[in-house]
Each structure stands twice: as structure tokens, then as C-alpha cells.
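fyi for ur records
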Amino acid sequence: MQSTCKRCLLQHEIDEAQYTASGCNFCDTYMSRLNQINQVNKSGFQKDIAYRVKQNKGPNQEYDCVIGVSGGTDSSYLVDWAHEHRLNALLVHVDNGWNTELSTRNIELLSKGTGFPLVTVVLNWSNFRDIQKAFVEAGLKELEFATDHAIKFGVYQTAKKHGIKSILSGRNLVTEGILPEAWSYGPLDRKFLLSVCSRHGVSIDKSFPSQSLFSYLFDRITRRYQEYFPLNYVEQSSDEWKMKLEKKYGWKKYDQKHFESTWTKFYQGYWLPKRFGIDKRRAHLSVKLLRGEITRTNAIEQLNQPMLPTDYEHTELKYVAEKLNIPASELISFSCKGDTPVSEFRNNKVFFDLLHTPTYIAVRRFLLS
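which gave:
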């Protein structure tokens, strides 16, 4: 019998979950972080971020910052935020071959509406398809790992190429902030990516945006790159963000969070629930519930709605299988097997754990000060 937290929507079969007097460790941690942010002058923090970005601009540099865009809510609103704070941003989109028409249109509307130029990093499709097939065949939760890795380093390498020192990130506590560690693995680990691909006979194309952990950290420290998270300090709800984007740019919303990508729709709507019993809507809706944007009754009603249409296996899943060049029946069978942990492959997890220690954080702040 699965037990659900009395305050958020996470269920206690999750390994890291612990009951507390107020709810669970996930919502306690989230509320603690949210309360810290709510105690600051949010408008002042936003202005300070914009000022720091301007100050961080190198001499004779055209752009103040770089922003990775997907066409989804968070990155789109971040573009609008930069425009309203009079920053000159360079937009970067990593095209992994799974864009929907709507996501492409949203990106174009934002670029045109703000006047920000757009750089599109197009991945070698045949190679990227093989990388994704390797992750499917490996049976990993992390089907988005290769995409997230390419986005991270596609944005970073574009910033490096143009001499841009400031990167604006759409990560935030308004739409995110609750996600069990067991549900995913951070996208920086090139060693893990290479291990998965090697075991399935896949070589990574030289054009694929990637970098080793140590090279990346060395660059971050010596070149003094800064990453900022302005959306943490925006007062409005995510629904208000969407309404503003629709009115101002003609932007269109999606059925679910991150469904601007056909691959992410398959991953979050089919692969995770069917193979691992994971419904990421629990995390997304928990954030809205804790922020008072929806009631628990409404959140549960949304959870009870199917994520995908009833004919998904006969329509969109067939399209996904065709793009991967495997039979749909084989893709369905892969979705019905058990879990394969990250630890089955070579990885740098021990070093990533170290990066979150107070000592490392203090040292990095000192080096960048």
C-alpha cells in the first residue's frame, strides 16, 4: 500500500522519503528554501542580478548573457525577464531532432519579439539516435541524460565561443524544487555517458557538445563564468507566466510540463510510469500545492487524469520507435522491464557528491570572489 505525504504528493516508497511532523523531508526542505527566498527583497535581487550580468560583460563584447531555450515555460519566461531588464542576450537552442512544431514556433516568436538573436546547435541525428537507443537498451531512468548533457554544454560552449561570462538558467523554485534524487542523475557526467554508449557499441560524434567534469570545473573557475537563476525571485505563478507570454508574444502552452519535446513526452508520460512507476506530475504539482497555487483536491484530480491519450501506443509511440529505427513492439517490451541503476556503469558520482559539500562551495566562492 503506497502512502502519500499529508502535505505534498510524493509517496513514501521512494527510498529517500522520510515522514516528518509536518509532512516529509522533501516538502520540508522545499519550504525551508522557499521561506529563505521569500525573506529577501525579490525586486532588489532581480535588479542586482541584472547589474551583475552587466558588470560581468567583457570589453567590446556584444552580448551580456546567454540563455538556453526550449520553447517551454521556464526558459521562455526567462527570455522575457532578460528583455524587461534590458539585457542583450544570445539565445541558444540545442536541436536534438525531437522538437514539436509548437516548440519551434515559440522559440521563433520569442527571438523575434525580443530582438535577441538565436543560435541553433543541431545534433548529428544518426549518432544521437544511436546514443538514445543505447540508453533505452540499457534500461535506465535517465533517458533525458544525453539531451540534458548536450544542452548544458551546447549553451556553455556557445558562451565560451562568444566570450560571454554570464549564463542565465531557468531552474527555479517556482515550477521546480522537489525531485527525488533516485528519479534522475545530473547531466554533467561525461564518464557515465561514455560508459553507457561504449557498452552498447556506440561512439560519440566529435560534434556532440560535451566536456569532462574536470575540464568544465577548471573553465568555470579560471574563466570566471557565472550562472544566475533570476526566476527564483519572480513573484508571479507559473500560470501567470504563461498568460503573459501568450499575450505578449503569441506563445502557446503545452499539455504537460516539458511536453514541448516529443522525446520528453515519451520519457515522462510513458517510459517512467510504465517501467518504473514514476509520475513526475507528483513533483510538479507538489510545488504548486506548497505554494498555494492549487488545492490538494485539484492536484489529485489532475493526477487522476491520464498523461497520454488512450491511443498513444498506436500513434505517437510508433513515431518514436520509427525515429529510433526499432520496432514499436520492441520499444514497448523495453518499457516493461526492471530498473537498471546508474551504478551499473562507470560514473563520477562520488565527485559530484563532493561538489555539494560546504568545503567545496566555500572554496569556489573564494576563487570567484
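The radius of gyration is 20 Å. thats all i got for now
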